[in-house]
Amino acid sequence: MGNVRTRFAPSPTGFMHVGNLRTALYEYLVAKSQGGTFVLRIEDTDQERYVEGAVDVIYKTLETAGLKHDEGPDVGGDFGPYVQSERKDMYLPYAEQLIREGKAYRCFCTKERLEKIQSETVGGGYDRHCRDLSAEEIQKNLDAGIPYVIRQKMPLEGETTFTDAVFGEITVDNSELQDQILIKADGYPTYNFANVIDDHTMGITHVVRGSEYLSSTPKYNLLYEAFGWEIPTYIHLPLINGKNDDGTVSKLSKRHGSTGFEDLIKEGYLPEAIINYIALLGWCPKDNQEIFTLDELCEAFDISGISKSPSVFDYDKLKWFNAEYIKAMTDEQFAEIAKPYFKEALGDTEIDFVKLASILKQRTEKLTDIPEKIDFFKALPAYEKELFYNKKSKTNPENAPVMLKAVIDELKAMPQWDFDSIHDALIGLAQKLEVKNGTVMWPARIAAAGKTVTPGGAVEILDILGREESLRRMEEGLKKLN
Question: How far apart are the first and last CA of the chain?
Fold first, then answer.
C-alpha cells in the first residue's frame, strides 16, 4: 500500500466531543505508528450546521492535544484544497461519469412523490421509479428544466462483503441497500459521496471512524468498485458509553458530565492526561502500561489492540490519570500551570508559588480544586476554638493554649524563618515538653490555617505564610483559646 495516509474530517459545528477527539487520535496513531501521513480535511458541505468560528475550535483542539497534522487547510499539501466547500466543483463530473457508464441515473421525482412512497412502503425506501426511464423521457425532463438528484444504481441481488480491521468480515444483502443519492438537487454532493471522492483523490489508505458507520460501509465500497478504485482499510471504533446513576450505561452524552475537550480542560484536566485516557478507551496495549506520552503511544499503538466492545468513559479514572500527570511534574512546572488558579484564590498576596506547588502537587486531582484548598493563605477563615481539640493529636481545652503559647515563644526566638528552622524548632519543642509531635503541630496548624484539612502540615504552612503573618495568626488563635 505504500505510505499510510489517514484523515480526520470533522464538520465545523463548534464543539469537539471526546468521541471525535478519539477518532482524531486513532487516525493520528494509525499513521504515526507506521511512519505515515495524518491529514486534516474540513467537511463543511452541510451549510445549515455550520457555526461561525468553529474551524478555529478544530485547529485549537488539535494543537492543544498535540495532534499535529501533516496536511490541511492551514498547512497546505499536494492534495488540496482541504476544505470540502472549496472542492465543490469536482464531485459532479464523477457522478456524471457513473451515469454514462450506466451505474447511476437522474431521478426527477418530486418531494411530494417521495414523501408519499415513504409513507406507503415498508421500510420507507425509494421505489427506483426513475431507474429505467427511456432516453427520450430523460431528455424531455431535462429540456423542461425539471430539477433532479443523481442516484447510484445498487445491485438488486447478491450480497456485499467487506472486511473491517476491528470487526472482521461483514456481509450485507444487496436487497437492503437503497439507490443512494450522490448529488442533491442543488448540485452539492451528499456526505457519503463527497467522502468517497475526497478519500480517493487524497490517497487515503486507512479510514478510521465510529462503529455507527459500519452499516453504511457497503455503500461506500460499491462506489469504490463502480469507479474501479482500491478500497481503503476500514477501522471502525467501538462506542463510548457513560455511566448512568442506576449503574447501567448508555451512549456518552452531556448528562454524564462534560463530553467536550474544551469543557474538560475548563474543569481542570490537563490535555496530556485527557489524550492518554482517551487512547485507552477502546485500545489495549500489549502489556499493562497505563501512562503514555503521545510519542510512546505512537511507538506502542497497534490496530490489533482495538477492541470491539464499547468502552465506558469513567470520570474517576480520568481524575486518576490527571493526578498522576500532576505528580510527575516538577514544582516549577506545576506552579506555572496552576498560576491562574493560585491568582484566583490569592489575588496579589505575596506568596511563593513554587513552595505552594510543592505542597499541592501530591494532593491535586483537578486544577479547579486548587482555589478552595489554598484560600486560607489569603485570609484566615472564621473558625471555632473547638478545632484545636483533637483526640489523635492528644490536644484538649487544657493543653492547647499552653502548646500554642510555647510554639509562639519558640518561633519568635528563631533567627531565621525557613522550612528547616521551623521544623527543627517544633520537633525540638515537642521533645522538651515530652509530648507527641502532633500535640505541638496541631494547634500551630489550626491557628495558621483556621481549618482541619489543609494541603501540607504546620511547618509547610508557616513557611509559606512567613514570620509576620504566621505569628499574627497564632496570637489571634491564642486569644480565641483564652
Answer: 83
